[in-house]
Amino acid sequence: MPMNKEARIEKPEDACLEGETLVDAAYRRLRQDIITSARQPGERLRIEKLKAIYGIGPTPLREAMQKLAQDGLVVGEGNRGFTVAPLDPDEFMDLNLARTVIEKEALRLAIEKGGDDWEAGVVAAAYLMAKEDAALEASTGQVPDSWERANSGLHLALVSACGSKWLLKMRGGLHDLCERYRRASVYRGMGNRDLKAEHAAIVEAALARDADRACRLIGEHFALTAAALTSASQDAGPGRFDLDDKAAGGDA
To answer: For the chain, how many structural domains are there in total?
Structure first.
């Protein structure tokens, strides 16, 4: 009889990427599972359960959760351990504001500094994004991971030539935190948005070196996602997002 996914035990040596410590591996894998809602908001992170899921011992897991608490992804409860941080609509609006400001500045710098390699990277990422947008438009199911990867890849390609490692680091952290909110709702349709057209317009403006237009379009793109998630939280009731059956719309 097949073993339940969460009951699967992995060998510790299989839990790490090359060069990773067990703490790094625990941090990476827990962080990804929290962002993608494999570990649900409010879930108690019990060490024995996590050992079985990830094949990593209690000490690295506790250290990883302390790092995740610094990221705001888990909440420490004193001697009671840790839980996955809840979703707060007000926090999301604050995150989205910060993300939009940083994304616009990074994009403006990338348009100014980017050369042929940057343009080629944007064109390649836009090609993959167009394919995923077309597939998503024809789908009636949940947004697949392949779409999420293409979307993240396109937005990263657009800002990749900004010339600031710190700006990219801050931008990446905010992107991941916003992704957690976006993925927390089940997608049952993309509403009235034409994501393929939105992405294409941003790419066109960036490659034309029209920084003002590209930044305006990015701002509008992110604002539509924020509006969709705000609507989902209002439908679900004060202070929460509906994790069961509300459509959140597409990502920015």
So the answer is: 2
Cα 128 from Cα 113, distance rounded (Å): 24
Compute the 3-state secondary structure of the chain and give helix, strand, coil in percent, each to the nearest 5.
Answer: 65, 5, 30
Backbone angles phi, psi at 17, to 5 degrees: -80, 165
- One domain for residues 44 and 167: no
The residues with which 76 forms a beta bridge, in sequence order, are 82
Give residue 70's domain range.
5-84
Task: Report how far residue 50's alpha carbon sits from residue 159's, in angstroms, rounded to the nearest whole number.
Answer: 36
pTM of the model: 0.78
Structural contact between residues 161 and 108, judged by C-beta atoms closer than 8 angstroms? no
pLDDT in tens, 195-227: 999 999 999 999 999 999 999 999 999 998 888
Same domain, 116 and 141: yes
Structure-token pair, residue 103: 């994304």
Say which range, 30-44, 162-176, 220-234, has the weakest mean pLDDT. Answer: 220-234
Region 192-197 average pLDDT: 85
**Tokens 């077309």 found at:** 134
Tokens of 152: 């993240």
Same domain, 43 and 140: no
Indicate the length of the chain as a whole number: 252
Same domain? 67 vs 189: no
- 68 and 33, same structural domain? yes
**Per-residue pLDDT, 189:** 41
